[in-house]
Records
---
Amino acid sequence: MQIGKYLSLALLGVSAVVAQTQNQTQNDNNSTIYDLLSAPNNNLNASRFIGLVNSDTGYQPIINLLKNPGNLTCFVPSDGVLNKVLTVWKAYAKQHKINVTGDYPPANMSYNNYTVSDLITYHIVGDRVNLTNLTDHNISVSVVHSVLNNSKVDHLGTGLPILIGNNASYAEFHNQTWMQANGSYLEYEVGNGHDDTDVDIKDVNATNGLINIISSVLIPPMSPTTVIKEVDDLDGFEELLKKYPIIGSTLNSTTNFTLFAPASDALKKANLTGMNNDTIQDLVRSHLVEGVYYTPNITANALTNDGNTNFTTFSNITFPAYVNSTSGYITLNKTARIVDSNIFFNNGVMHVVDSIISNDTEHDHDD
Ligand SMILES: *[C@@H]1O[C@H](CO)[C@@H](O)[C@H](O)[C@H]1NC(C)=O
Ligand SMILES: *[C@@H]1O[C@H](CO)[C@@H](O)[C@H](O)[C@H]1NC(C)=O
Ligand SMILES: *[C@@H]1O[C@H](CO)[C@@H](O)[C@H](O)[C@H]1NC(C)=O
Ligand SMILES: *[C@@H]1O[C@H](CO)[C@@H](O)[C@H](O)[C@H]1NC(C)=O
Ligand SMILES: *[C@@H]1O[C@H](CO)[C@@H](O)[C@H](O)[C@H]1NC(C)=O
Ligand SMILES: *[C@@H]1O[C@H](CO)[C@@H](O)[C@H](O)[C@H]1NC(C)=O
Ligand SMILES: *[C@@H]1O[C@H](CO)[C@@H](O)[C@H](O)[C@H]1NC(C)=O
Ligand SMILES: *[C@@H]1O[C@H](CO)[C@@H](O)[C@H](O)[C@H]1NC(C)=O
Ligand SMILES: *[C@@H]1O[C@H](CO)[C@@H](O)[C@H](O)[C@H]1NC(C)=O
Ligand SMILES: *[C@@H]1O[C@H](CO)[C@@H](O)[C@H](O)[C@H]1NC(C)=O
Ligand SMILES: *[C@@H]1O[C@H](CO)[C@@H](O)[C@H](O)[C@H]1NC(C)=O
Ligand SMILES: *[C@@H]1O[C@H](CO)[C@@H](O)[C@H](O)[C@H]1NC(C)=O
């Protein structure tokens, strides 16, 4: 069975913007995540989620996770968003004459190698991640890993990543005066790095982990070519992939890499007209580094060494990266600044840069 349209509608249509009301919910200190979410008249606003996981025995492994002892963090879509998704799903099922008995899609229905059960599993992190406490530790963005690690969809085998961020800039975050005044009003977002959703209620404590209520569904990281199409400012790179399909298939089939993808303006400036196939492939390889480097890793590495670290590309060239400790800006090879970061693939990560990374650079960025 296919839920392509349902999923893409969920993707495109249901990113509901809901005002954040980060109410802290009190509890009796002896309830599991499952207990809290299914308690009558609770104020978590997530009865549809509980309805979903109870609708089909295929969701039992998820219920077990939420009921058994453990240390988890769940991002639970609110009733508002699940109602919309389910409406889309029902219309889709009707149109495609799929036999639906209840309100909910079956656990084993699949789309692009993901079952619905996988999609839900992506919302669960195998660790206690207290969002408020991230603030206390001066971490402005954080990458955590979901318990979804089946090799069909997670080519890295680390558990598909989830990005947690908030609406403070790096500079604000590292300014104690600013944080004292504003820290408790920060709003949090989670997602795959290019499609992020608001956290409406955060850090609800249960015996086996924490619950956060979110205002859309989380979309797991997909293949590089799929993701690149969806990211703003990469039209030029997308054109390149169309013209040279070998680049896209190489990105799709490689694992464990970081791609520094030049933004459209950067490619325009570089004027690739007239370059041959080999030169272009080499250019792309010079933006590709082995290993998955999220910005918190790059920053942490660099700040132990006066802001400097090095990367070695697939074309075997080593270039420096510099992290400005005030602004947090990351500049590669003295010229290319990361302007959009931590966009996840199922096999690596991408950062968008505002200039190509070339070996013959003359002008430095002023930062
Ligand atoms: C948060 O608390 C306020 C005041 O108690 C209440 O009006 C509001 O409905 C609550 N919001 C949520 C999402 O529970
Ligand atoms: C907590 O709940 C468990 C399971 O329901 C029960 O066995 C235990 O006695 C409870 N502990 C406290 C301190 O209430
Ligand atoms: C949860 O984490 C705590 C602290 O690290 C640990 O003591 C406890 O055993 C863990 N619980 C489970 C069920 O893994
Ligand atoms: C639809 O599903 C129900 C329950 O699983 C089953 O009894 C019924 O025969 C199915 N109908 C069709 C047309 O497959
Ligand atoms: C599904 O998995 C197969 C085998 O790993 C792979 O060849 C195919 O490209 C995947 N499909 C999608 C849409 O990711
Ligand atoms: C906050 O996080 C730190 C490190 O991540 C951890 O050691 C500490 O126990 C956490 N504190 C609370 C209150 O969760
Ligand atoms: C989360 O961390 C904050 C700040 O350290 C702390 O006040 C709060 O009690 C923690 N919440 C949970 C559920 O651990
Ligand atoms: C830190 O934040 C305070 C309060 O917003 C502001 O007045 C001050 O200029 C900031 N300091 C720096 C170095 O940006
Ligand atoms: C959260 O719940 C755990 C397990 O019940 C408990 O040990 C911890 O003290 C609670 N934390 C807070 C901040 O209430
Ligand atoms: C990359 O993988 C995706 C998902 O399997 C597939 O849809 C796409 O056609 C692939 N692109 C290339 C250029 O191989
Ligand atoms: C780009 O390069 C091509 C071939 O080298 C050249 O003909 C063209 O004028 C250049 N375009 C710009 C805008 O520099
Ligand atoms: C990914 O690449 C990094 C850097 O080369 C390496 O340290 C790491 O072991 C690799 N991980 C896997 C799973 O291959």
---
Amino acid sequence: MDSNNSMSCIFCSALLMFFFTSKTLLCSVVANNTISSGQSLSGNQTIVSQNGNFELGFFTPGKSLKYYMGIWYTEASAENRMVVWVANRDHPLNDLPSSELKLFDNGNLVLLNDLKMPIWSTNSTSKAFKSSTAVLGDDGNLVLRDGSSIILWQSFDHPTNTLLAGAKLGYDKRAKMAAQKLTSWRNSEDPAHGIYSVQSEGPDGNFEVRWNGSAAYWSTDAWSTDSFYSTIKLRSILNSFNFSFISNENESYFTFSPKDKSVLDFVMLDFNGQLKSYFLVKEMQSWNLIWYQPTLQCQVYGFCGDFGVCRENSLPVCQCLPGFKQYHPKDWDLLDYSGGCVRETSLQCGGKDWFLKLHNVRLPVNSKASRVEKADNCKLACSNNCSCSAYAYTSAGCLTWHGNLLNIQQLDSDGDDLYLRLAASDVSSSGRKVSVLPIAIGVVSGMIALAVISVLVVFSRLGRMKRKVNTSVTEEDNSPGPMHHYTFLTAFEYKQLKVATKNFSDKLGGGGFGSVLKGVLPDSTPIAVKKLEGISQGEKQFRSEVSTLGLVQHVNLVRLLGFCSEGNNRMLVYDFMSNGSLDSHLFSKDDSKVLNWSTRYQIAVGIARGLAYLHEQCRDCIIHCDIKPENILLDADFTPKVADFGLAKILGHEFSRVLTTFRGTVGYLAPEWTTGVAITTKADVYSYGMMLFEIISGRRNMKQHVNGKMCFFPTWAANKVLSKGHQVLCILDEKLECIADVEELTRAFSVACWCIQEEEIQRPSMGQIVQILEGLLEVNSPPIPKYLEALLENEETIISFFSE
Ligand SMILES: *[C@@H]1O[C@H](CO)[C@@H](O)[C@H](O)[C@H]1NC(C)=O
Ligand SMILES: *[C@@H]1O[C@H](CO)[C@@H](O)[C@H](O)[C@H]1NC(C)=O
Ligand SMILES: *[C@@H]1O[C@H](CO)[C@@H](O)[C@H](O)[C@H]1NC(C)=O
Ligand SMILES: *[C@@H]1O[C@H](CO)[C@@H](O)[C@H](O)[C@H]1NC(C)=O
Ligand SMILES: *[C@@H]1O[C@H](CO)[C@@H](O)[C@H](O)[C@H]1NC(C)=O
Ligand SMILES: *[C@@H]1O[C@H](CO)[C@@H](O)[C@H](O)[C@H]1NC(C)=O
Ligand SMILES: *[C@@H]1O[C@H](CO)[C@@H](O)[C@H](O)[C@H]1NC(C)=O
């Protein structure tokens, strides 16, 4: 396609431009890595390490309006900046131009605010006047030396949340205390001391991650033991990194360095309480998460704060208990839930309160056991004491809680029942049944858009309410929900893959990009190897896949096991999917490959979950840009995996509308691709809707008729069901012989119609789609998209769709 080519050229030149600007930027500042005695840095001045990897200067995190002095990797653009050290983390500056970092003649490095008041300092003094220097080293360490090169102070001794290669995390044997400590940021926009920290607990090198300096929720064994490796589960990346534990009479510490000097790597304690390790292969320009612990978010102690409920793999992860509201909603918006929730209505006590039963939860911490027999007496014991906020009668007897409730988790099974004390008025309102008023369709067309928007608003409200009800009074469905896979990216050698694929002989498929081969690893794990060909196109796809898929882990996304980048060879290694791609089942003439309705529905839900994760749950928003049945793979159990991230695009967290280049496949492309409007995640929603029609009908949406006319299945289907009042079963794949759950089919059909609405604002989000398909959110009949209405040809053309 011509337009495709010219568009991708625009994309190329944009890439080149980016490359150019970042290169020139580097060159112009690389000259100076030093602040000399008497000098200062102010405004947008920075110093850069000699190798060009690190930069020191003022920065503002995210959308914050505050200024901080810090060190960051030069690799990424400003909005993806990886800050590795912050000087004034608890004391931000409001005014940039007049603030400065100054090295005084006495050897003290001081940060001065606009009133020239010191707000941070190294407190160092040099014996030699006017001879000290502060140098930003190639390892990212800011080192302050006096004239005789004695180290007066260095940033490696005062880490914030990040441990860089070459830095120590250790224990001071003489002072008998941790020598360094990493403390999380409060949220992505505030580097102030957060609630999580990690440090060495003793001279043997065991590390603990703690909440508020007390409760430890993850720890390693002592370094000297074999189990140290298994606790940190680093075995599979030991090949790439040199880890050492050094112990002498004064100190013991952990440190690491990458074996390959072109790899950058660091460990950081993220504000969500997880210890994470990222690495960057320089040419790829994006960070890859290779390791994190604990692997489950709800294992992080106190993550949802007081009276919050944690639910693994849900969106958002934290909710308030019924009858409670977010204490600091602004922090919740930044995914910082540690402030927890507060009661909406205060308790009246004296027998006026009710107890609400929460099903299947992990009980909060700090219970008191009381020796009463029956459940009724347990309730009485709690209701008679005004400070009692909840009770549970478990196999361990009667437990009561006084004051705040921390660490409740909603489980899918094997949990306990917790009885929560609430004001009577809160119990009746949260127990109310929620239903949606049907809104008649066929309103004047101008009104439709308005109605749709308000319906969507209602949706999201109801979504929230209904979830609350779900955690409280109704029986939870036991759907397992998406699970986080947990893997490392391995850098394979060319010859390893050559052996694994028997000299690239067992071909599974191919395309313009190259070929896909089947292989087996030495530990007999079956793999699929994608061998990219065509130097520039291959390189682009390679980077795109590694940088997007390397960042994400989800049961409904294909798992990237590793990659190979040697010379001109670019290969990607994935889990092998024994059932092939979705299109091979949907459009197959082979009866044995036909998928029954419930499998199709599970596939639709799975894909939606995978996309919801991409759009809403991972660190950056990722738009896949090429959703179609060919890019959905099925494993042995027919669990769908979204694959082929060669066109995917990572957007910053602010979901900025930056994509204007043409990507994707005709037939699944949202109208905004062709109208030149910038692209959002709703483009994926559109493609998903198109694909959903194909899953329902088992036929391609678009088909060229004998007379050369293009037929468009969704048009026919929407028209038939919505305006002609036919049964939804009539659009079902006839190979299924009308055997389908009609409620599910109706839901799927409505979702598909909503997804392909012309206006992206009318399309639901992927998260809402999951809820609708799971039956948690109700949905109204959608309008027929207007542009489809225009496409409506006479009935005969359309009916001929069915006469093959
Ligand atoms: C670079 O460093 C040298 C001394 O190390 C200093 O004299 C010079 O002023 C610095 N240049 C800039 C632009 O800061
Ligand atoms: C730094 O700030 C000055 C004055 O505010 C401005 O003229 C200059 O373009 C800025 N430099 C960079 C690299 O942003
Ligand atoms: C410098 O001293 C002040 C006052 O004692 C202290 O608050 C601050 O933390 C010290 N700075 C560093 C970097 O140790
Ligand atoms: C953290 O601990 C301090 C005392 O060490 C306490 O005052 C504070 O309330 C605790 N924070 C939370 C959120 O519990
Ligand atoms: C690993 O690190 C230790 C301590 O820093 C060092 O002695 C050793 O030579 C390093 N090994 C390699 C292969 O880099
Ligand atoms: C331990 O500290 C003492 C006193 O500062 C010093 O003399 C000695 O060299 C240190 N030992 C090591 C192994 O660094
Ligand atoms: C309520 O329970 C708390 C905590 O167990 C206890 O300290 C207090 O004395 C009790 N109050 C009454 C009135 O029993």
